[in-house]
Write a structure and sequence with these properties.
By secondary structure, the protein is α/β, with parallel strands linked by helices. The protein is elongated.
């Protein structure tokens, strides 16, 4: 049995979770952050130019600033993956692969996992030309032809990053126009290495030992050597749902404007929730709001 009862257990170490930790400390709550990936998916972002205070910064650098801020408040950030949560008479037992943590309240800031294309060849060539992280794998494709699948701002920025290494970058998107921010679209349009293929879907990834081409639903067999998949994320909400927390049809945790779920002692923030705008800045704001709600619950307010 756990020998310590935390006021709040924050699950997830991205911007939402780290902001929650900072505010928990300011509210004098005894808190712990449990995270599979310190910094969250933001560490894979090449360039962030819309976070106030930093005109231009990499995701890894921004995450490091946040981690140092949490460290300043002496909130432990434990690199352990939560695998189960059970209700107890005092609140919750949160189980990781290594330990069990007891908490009066729980805040889910678990974010999302990379969405898969679900086409033949994707799993087969994972790590052999198929990647979900240009920051991680981009340098291996120096001088090669690659494709970025997706039409979001993140996908467009992946293409811009890849253009630093690759000789040719295709953006393959199922609709007519990219959904990226206007400033990003303008930068993409001026990059001579990038070509947009609209109204097309990848239906198969082909190759031998490595990726050699992708088959499009237009019938074209596009020759290339790397495929970077950036089509959004799947909310990491299964454990919350198992606790009886309400989720929507996309699996996102339903919260009110204060980060409260349908359970009075469970809170949520960031990309795992049903908020429309999923950015680091909004995640941080939601983390602070949810922690304030947890504080009010704990204090009986």
């Amino acid at each position: 049995m756990p020998d310590k009862l935390y006021d709040i257990i924050i699950i997830g170490g991205g911007p939402a979770g780290m902001a929650a930790a900072i505010y928990a400390a300011r509210f004098k709550l005894n808190a712990v952050v449990l995270t599979k990936m310190p910094g969250g998916l933001i560490v894979t972002a090449h360039l962030i130019e819309n976070y106030p205070g930093f005109a231009s910064i990499s995701g890894a650098e921004l995450a490091e600033h946040m981690k140092q801020h949490v460290k300043k408040f002496n909130v432990p950030m434990v690199e352990e993956e939560v695998i189960d949560i059970k209700r107890t008479k005092n609140g919750f037992d949160v189980r990781t692969k290594e330990n069990v943590y007891a908490g009066r309240t729980v805040l889910f800031a678990t974010g999302t996992e990379r969405r898969k294309l679900g086409v033949p060849g994707e799993a087969q060539f994972a790590g052999r030309g198929v990647s979900y992280c240009a920051v991680c794998d981009g340098p291996f494709f120096r001088g090669k032809t690659v494709a970025v699948i997706g039409g979001s701002d993140a996908a467009a920025k992946e293409a811009l990053l890849m253009s630093q290494w690759a000789s040719k970058v295709y953006i393959i998107y199922r609709k007519e126009n990219l959904r990226a921010e206007p400033a990003t679209i303008e930068t993409v349009s001026k990059n001579s290495k990038i070509e947009i293929i609209s109204n097309a879907n990848v239906v198969e990834i082909k190759g031998g030992k490595m990726v050699e081409s992708v088959l499009l639903d237009t019938g074209e067999d596009l020759r290339l050597e790397g495929v970077f998949i950036e089509i959004g994320g799947v909310p990491t909400s299964a454990i919350a749902k198992a606790l009886g927390v309400d989720v929507n049809e996309r699996g996102e945790i339903i919260i009110d404007k204060n980060g409260c779920t349908n359970a009075p002692d469970i809170f949520a923030a960031g990309d795992v929730t049903d908020r429309q705008y999923k950015q680091a800045i909004t995640a941080a704001a939601e983390g602070s709001a949810a922690t304030f709600s947890a504080y009010k619950y704990i204090k009986g307010m």
